[in-house]
Design goal:
Elements (H helix, E strand, L loop, with lengths): L6 E9 L4 H19 L4 E9 L2 E9 L6 H12 L14 E7 L3 H7 L15 E8 L8 H18 L6 E14 L2 E14 L4 H17 L8 E4 L15 E2 L4 H4 L20 H18 L5 E8 L8 E5 L6 H8 L6 H8 L28
Parallel strand pairs: 3-4, 7-8
Antiparallel strand pairs: 1-6, 2-3, 2-9, 5-10, 6-7, 10-11
Helix pairs in contact: 1-2, 4-5, 7-9
C-alpha cells in the first residue's frame, strides 16, 4: 500500500463552554476585551483559576483605563449558565481574588516602539507558533476537531434553548475519523460526556444519538458509528464546583485537535502584542491563503521570535508533498510577520477575543484570520 493510500484513524476532542478550563479562558478573554475596548494599547496578560467557590484573577496588566475585573468575571460565569445558587460554583456568590500587577518595564522596552532599540514594536516574548490548513473541509480545518467542536457547541446551544431540561454546562466530546491518505472516509467513533441533572441514562443516549449527532455531524453521520455516551454512567457533579480550571490548558482543543504541532503558548487572556496569540493567528491566515490559492492541499507554517525583536528568527512552510513547495515558499515571502504588521493587517486592536474562546480559535468565518480575501 502506497503512502498516498495509507489508511489510519485520527481522533480529536473538544469541550463545552462550561468545562472548568474554558470558564477560566472566557473570564480572561472577557477582561482582555474590556481593556482593549477602553484602551486599544493596553498590555494584558491575564490568568484565571477557578475552583469550588473561588475565582483567582492574576497576571500583568498595564493600561490607561480601569476595568472591574470582578464584575466581568461574574457576568462571564452567569452567561455560561452557572447560576444555580445551590451549587458551590455560581456567578453570584463566588469569591474573586485579584492578583494583578503592571507589565514588567523590561518587557515594555522590548515591545513598545518608542522604547525599542530597533525603533519598532518587538515581539512580546520568544517562542514558536504554528498555523495549519487543509482542504478536507470547507472551513480548511481537520475534520475530527471540526466535528468535535460542532457537537460541543450544539450541546451548549441545546442547553441554552432548553431543548432538554436536564443538560448542565460541563461536557466533553471526541470524534474519530478514518482516513485514506489525505482524505477523510468516514466517522468511526463519537464520544460525548455531558453533565446532567436527574434523568435516566437511556434518555441521555437517545438525545445524543437520535437528536444531537444528526444535527452536528450532518453528512458525516453513518449507521456504523460507535457511540459512547457518559461512559462512567453518570455525570451529575461537574464544573469548577468539583474540578479545577486554569487558563490555557486546552491549547490543542483551541487549535487543530492534534493534527498539527503546537508551539506551547496559550491564547486566552493575552493582548495581540503577545506573539503566542497574534503570531499563531497569522500563521493560520497564511496557511489558509496557501490552500485557498491552490498551492497545496495541506499547509503548515512555523514562525519563531526573539523577545524585543520584530523580525522573526525563522519562517518555515511544509506542504507535506501536496503541492509545489518552492511556489509556496515564494508566496509566503510576500507576507510581513513583524508584530505591528500582523496587528495592522488583521486589525487585532479590537474587542474580538471573547468570541474566540470556545469551540476553537480557527475555522470561524467571522474572525479576521479566517478571511482569505483580507
Amino acid at each position: 500500500m502506497t503512502k498516498q493510500t495509507k489508511r489510519y484513524r485520527f481522533t480529536s476532542e473538544s469541550v463545552t463552554e462550561g468545562h472548568p478550563d474554558k470558564v477560566c479562558d472566557l473570564i480572561a478573554d472577557s477582561i482582555l476585551d474590556e481593556y482593549i475596548l477602553r484602551d486599544p494599547q493596553s498590555r494584558v496578560a491575564c490568568e484565571v483559576l477557578c475552583k469550588a467557590d473561588t475565582v483567582v484573577v492574576a497576571g500583568e496588566i498595564t493600561s490607561s483605563e480601569q476595568v472591574a475585573h470582578e464584575e466581568i468575571a461574574r457576568k462571564a460565569i452567569n452567561a455560561i449558565g452557572y447560576t444555580d445558587e445551590t451549587e458551590v460554583f455560581n456567578g453570584n456568590s463566588v469569591k474573586v481574588i485579584q492578583l494583578i500587577t503592571k507589565q514588567s518595564g523590561e518587557i515594555g522596552k522590548g515591545v513598545d516602539s518608542a522604547q525599542n532599540l530597533q525603533g519598532e514594536q518587538g515581539a512580546g516574548d520568544q517562542g514558536i507558533m504554528f498555523g495549519y490548513a487543509t482542504d478536507e473541509t470547507p472551513e480548511l480545518m481537520p475534520l475530527p476537531i471540526l466535528l468535535a467542536h460542532r457537537l460541543a457547541r450544539q450541546l451548549a446551544e441545546d442547553r441554552h434553548n432548553n431543548v432538554v431540561d436536564w443538560l448542565r454546562p460541563d461536557g466533553k466530546t471526541q470524534v474519530s475519523v478514518s482516513y485514506a491518505g489525505n482524505d477523510p472516509v468516514n466517522v468511526s467513533d463519537v464520544l460525548v460526556s455531558t453533565q446532567h441533572g436527574e434523568t435516566d441514562k437511556k434518555h441521555i443516549e437517545e438525545y445524543i444519538i437520535e437528536s444531537l449527532a444528526p444535527r452536528a455531524l450532518g453528512e458525516w453521520l453513518n449507521r456504523e458509528i460507535r457511540f459512547l455516551v457518559n461512559p462512567t454512567g453518570s455525570f451529575i457533579h461537574g464544573g469548577p464546583s468539583v474540578d479545577c480550571g486554569v487558563t490555557g490548558r486546552k491549547i490543542i482543543v483551541d487549535t487543530y485537535g492534534g493534527m498539527a504541532p503546537h508551539g506551547g503558548g496559550a491564547f486566552s487572556g493575552k493582548d495581540p502584542s503577545k506573539v503566542d496569540r497574534s503570531g499563531a493567528y497569522f500563521c493560520r491566515y497564511v496557511a489558509r491563503k496557501i490552500v485557498s490559492e491552490g498551492l497545496a492541499r495541506k499547509a503548515q507554517m512555523q514562525v519563531a521570535y526573539a523577545i524585543g525583536i520584530a523580525e522573526p528568527i525563522s519562517i518555515r512552510i511544509d506542504t507535506f508533498g501536496t503541492g509545489e513547495s518552492e511556489a509556496a515558499e515564494a508566496f509566503v515571502s510576500r507576507f510581513d510577520f513583524r508584530p505591528a504588521a500582523i496587528i495592522e493587517r488583521l486589525d487585532l486592536l479590537r474587542p474580538i477575543y471573547r468570541q474566540t474562546t470556545n469551540y476553537g480559535h480557527f475555522g470561524k468565518s467571522d474572525l479576521p484570520w479566517e478571511d482569505s480575501n483580507r
